[in-house]
Design the sequence.
């Protein structure tokens, strides 16, 4: 029986194509610290530290700690010196990126529906960003943490693995106190949101064009379609469950 629903954020609850968002994000953060660090250098260290963080597999510290250890020393600064400057970027510059994203009207209906059904609701976004950058995007999606009491929002401060590793999903299960088959993962990225949860036994609904062919392999999602399709599918599951 369904007890918990895990929603990816970017291009699932919120229209946010990474091909446009990430360059604008890098440009914004680069300009913000350009008086201290040449933007090219910042970008290359940011990419490097992000790759190191992607490798975090649940056996060590939080994603934030892994990122910080790879990032700040490489730039030749103490973490304490730079962190407040980046925090100001997230307060002043990051909000401007909202214009690149698109609210999806079905997102709020789905989240409301999930809470009405008494499900534990998780924002299962790849935990590569600080909490503020994730909570702001949740606001842009129209489902803010101030209105919805999520069981968990996976941020880089408190997760110990990324979606490249089964440990990301194991950590969610442990935090929720749930078995894999009591959960449903919903997301657009085949590797991260369908294949990886499937590897620990969590069924997944693939947010993709209904006509899109899934990659080769032995993983099959429980469903495929838009948020509106998911809505109808969930309603069917609810009927059958009663
Ligand atoms: Mg996504």
Sequence:
């Amino acid at each position: 029986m369904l007890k918990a629903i895990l929603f990816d954020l970017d291009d699932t609850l919120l229209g946010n194509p990474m091909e446009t968002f990430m360059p604008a994000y890098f440009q914004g953060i680069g300009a913000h610290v350009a008086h201290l660090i040449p933007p090219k250098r910042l970008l290359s260290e940011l990419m490097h530290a992000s790759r190191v963080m992607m490798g975090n597999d649940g056996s060590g510290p939080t994603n934030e700690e892994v990122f910080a250890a790879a990032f700040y020393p490489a730039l030749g600064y103490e973490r304490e010196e730079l962190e407040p400057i980046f925090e100001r970027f997230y307060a002043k510059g990051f909000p401007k990126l909202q214009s690149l994203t698109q609210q999806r009207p079905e997102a709020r209906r789905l989240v409301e529906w999930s809470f009405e059904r008494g499900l534990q609701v998780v924002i299962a976004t790849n935990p590569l960003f600080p909490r503020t950058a994730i909570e702001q995007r949740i606001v842009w999606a129209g489902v803010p943490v101030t209105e919805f009491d999520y069981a968990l929002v996976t941020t880089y401060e408190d997760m110990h693995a990324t979606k490249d590793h089964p440990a990301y999903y194991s950590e969610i299960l442990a935090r929720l106190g749930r078995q894999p088959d009591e959960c449903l993962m919903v997301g657009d990225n085949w590797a991260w949101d369908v294949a990886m949860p499937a590897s620990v036994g969590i069924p997944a609904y693939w947010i993709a064009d209904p006509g899109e062919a899934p990659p080769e392999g032995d993983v099959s999602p429980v469903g495929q379609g838009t948020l509106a399709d998911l809505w109808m599918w969930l309603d069917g599951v609810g009927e059958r469950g009663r």
Summary: The mean pLDDT is 95. The two ends are 10 Å apart (CA to CA). The chain has two domains: 4-16+102-241, 18-98. The CA atoms of residues 205 and 223 lie 5 Å apart.
